[in-house]
Amino acid sequence: MQVILDELDRGKCDISIPGVVRESEQCTVARTMTIYSLYIYDRHCACVYYQDWHRTKQPKRAGEGGGILNAVSQAVSPLATDSAAPTPSGFSSPRNTLSSTSGLVVAVGEDPVTSLPNPTEHARSNTLPFDEEAKLVYGVVLSLRNMVKKISGRDEQFTSYRTSSYRLHLYETVSGYKFIMLSDAATDGLRFILRQIYNGPFLEYVVRNPLVPMDSRSQGVDNDYFRASLDRLVRGLSVFN
């Protein structure tokens, strides 16, 4: 019995023993779980919607001509070339509207008179623009899905994978739309949540909305009603902290 406990402490085996709870398991139970972001892709492999909540490193805005569609998310869309800055969505994260890392709070859309050095400029330079990030996320999902089908057969479905820092969840509709959610690594499967998003806000405010062009290859599906309804659904989950 002592040998087994020693092996468990060193992480060499993963055996459940009745009445014995490891310290690492206690920490895992007490660990705060949360949801980071959501991507929606159409059947043409284009990202048509994006929203984040507890994401610590915000993506760069997509560059001009980067391939991102209009109406995906105001937080990641290319900046307007004219003097009129885009109005931030009322349902976006507060982190997208304020910057206080340098001690100076500047609202998006305001042009400061002097440009102060930003200590996080180097870190932001290492962040991918959103158009490249969206392609990377889709490429990873497509590669893993194809690998699962080749190894396990066509009847098997790829629904999620986990790393040491996050877990990716996938739900694909019959029409080819892919709902991809990133959450904390300790979170259980959230595929049923993605199904709720599709059967609820997506059908109500996107599919049945005559003002939202579906499968247009030129525009995303972002609108205020869909974003607000989706935000309420996600924030009401027990894993959202």
Describe the structure.
By secondary structure, this protein is of the alpha+beta class. The protein is built from six helices and five strands, in the order ααββααβββαα. A five-stranded antiparallel β-sheet has the order 2-1-5-4-3, with helices on both faces. Helix 5 packs antiparallel against helix 6. The longest helix is centred in the middle third of the chain and has 23 residues. The chain is globular and about 40 Å long.
Quick take:
This protein has 241 residues and is of the alpha+beta class.
Spatial order of strands in the largest sheet? 2-1-5-4-3
Termini gap: 38 Å
Helices and strands, in order, run as: HHEEHHEEEHH
Low-pLDDT parts are: 1-5, 7-30, 81-115, 119-123
Determine the mean pLDDT: 74
Summarize the main sheet.
5 strands, antiparallel
Rg from alpha-carbon coordinates: 21 Å
Total helical segments: 6
Strand content: 5-15%
Shape: globular
The proportion of residues forming helix, as a percent range, comes to 25-40%
Oligomer: single chain
Query: Structural class, judged by helices and strands?
Result: alpha+beta
Number-wise, the strands total 5
